Amino acid sequence: xxxxxxxxxxxxxxxxxxxxxxxxxxxxxxxxxxxxxxxxxxxxxxxxxxxxxxxxxxxxxxxxxxxxxxxxxxxxxxxxxxxxxxxxxxxxxxxxxxxxxxxxxxxxxxxxxxxxxxxxxxxxxxxxxxxxxxxxxxxxxxxxxxxxxxxxxxxxxxxxxxxxxxxxxxxxxxxxxxxxxxxxxxxxxxxxxxxxxxxxxxxxxxxxxxxxxxxxxxxxxxxxxxxxxxxxxxxxxxxxxxxxxxxxxxxxxxxxxxxxxx
Length: 262
Known about the structure:
seven-stranded mixed β-sheet, 42% helix, alpha/beta
């Protein structure tokens, strides 16, 4: 799901997850890797706003804290006042290996279980980007389900943030003549093709980002590439949604003349 709205009790907002809204205490949750890497994706935005989450993560990785640095563990860092950052280790290594993404869903689940207890202790709401679905290569619909089961089901309010993106209009008009309406199954095929295209764009971008050699311009280039990838996949998913609506309308009214504008 994208944009404003709710799914499984999750509130979606257009905005910046490093600037969460609301008056209650807040826990910002994001996914870290177990390789000690910090510098690309959402963590870069966190570090621009607060230095402490990165500093604590790195001391944790070096073994300077008692808490084990392993998948499923969560480090809570007080960023400012009633705002906490949860460094959740839910990614094994960096980059795709043998075609498999580094995301580890069971580690996400274990970590969110801990987050739920901390939220109850602090009387806090949880805020996050679409964690794990960017560089970690996870599928948001799977992560969304885990969030629902581990946080929403325990009475913890969750807000997910999408950065503002430029909307791209696709100028397409379909004739109102029933003779030119494609069969619903053809529309479904188009939806599946677009879905695979979006996944391929995500995978290629993630692989490219992790192959960028360290340099003074690497982080900026990675951020631009990630932003462009999000923009492209969001546009594709917007078209998919409209095609799905058209498909559903055709399925419900197969004998009526229907016009569609995407």
